[in-house]
Design brief:
The protein is an alpha+beta fold. It has a single domain, classed as B-lactam Antibiotic, Isopenicillin N Synthase, Chain (Jelly Rolls), CATH 2.60.120.330. Helices cover 29% and strands 19% of the residues. It is built from 7 helices and 13 strands. Strands 1, 2, 3, 4, 5, 7, 10, 12 and 13 form a 9-stranded mixed β-sheet that branches. A 4-stranded antiparallel β-sheet has the order 6-11-8-9, with no helix packed on it. Helix 1 links the parallel strand 1 and strand 2. The longest helix is centred in the middle third of the chain and has 27 residues. The radius of gyration is 18 Å and the shape is globular. It binds 2-oxoglutaric acid and fe (ii) ion. Fe (ii) ion binds next to loops.
Length: 279
Amino acid sequence: MKLDTIDYLAKDASKQFVESLHQTGFSVLRNHPISQELVETIYSEWQEFFNSEEKHDFKFNVSTQDGFFPASVSETAKGNSVKDIKEYYHYYPWGQIPKSLEENIVKYYQLANSFASELLCWIEEHSPAEVAAHYSIALSEMIKDSDSTLLRILHYPPMTGNEESGAIRAAAHEDINLITVLPAANEPGLQVKDKDGTWLDVPSDFGNIIINIGDMLQETTNGYFPSTSHRVINPEGMDKTKARISLPLFLHPKPDVVLSERYTAHEYLQERLKELGVI
Ligand SMILES: O=C(O)CCC(=O)C(=O)O
Ligand SMILES: [Fe+2]
């Protein structure tokens, strides 16, 4: 398996993009319309937030899952017993957000959502007819005005040497949602699992944007678009002292969208959150 970066401005970009998603579950775009300056500003604003004590004033609401998740309650990936070495913030447009961080996050949320909608149109356009026949509504309609789409701001702190044995920044997992839009983080570490089980580095040049398939689109397409395992490995050498910030947007359909004969989006999400021990 090979992950090339695709030029968003190329004539056949949409075709290459969708082919890569079909083959690998991942696609990496350069020359895309998401402002790198905005992404960098967000990284530095949130680094400051995670370094401050203010974050504890925004502790997540258990029932609605918005807000700050400290490392002590951080996720344990499905099938894993050790917690990931990370803390994060869940932003929803209806959820809590520090005033000083609101403007850029709202701007980014809107930009990335409309970009995702264009990419879902690309996916639909290049889906084989027998796959597209199972879309209950247009893919871009599934996420339109959805309250469930989640922007996660992730902070992987510098390594201290006291981490739990076997813990990594993000253990191997698959995303639950339809697709994920992920600007390359400010530090490396993201890897994707090849069909033969080898871990490959995702080309994460600063400025690239990574799109991956989640379980919901895999369910809807009966596996035509695979939801591939990925992880974030720990830094080595000099990089150990560096924090890593990343900004995945998890595109979630509206709850009553029918994904397949077996599931609506709501039913699917509940089942997966239960498995994760989040609810
Ligand atoms: O931090 C990253 O680059 C990836 C994070 C991720 O895969 C996730 O939060 O689902
Ligand atoms: Fe992920």
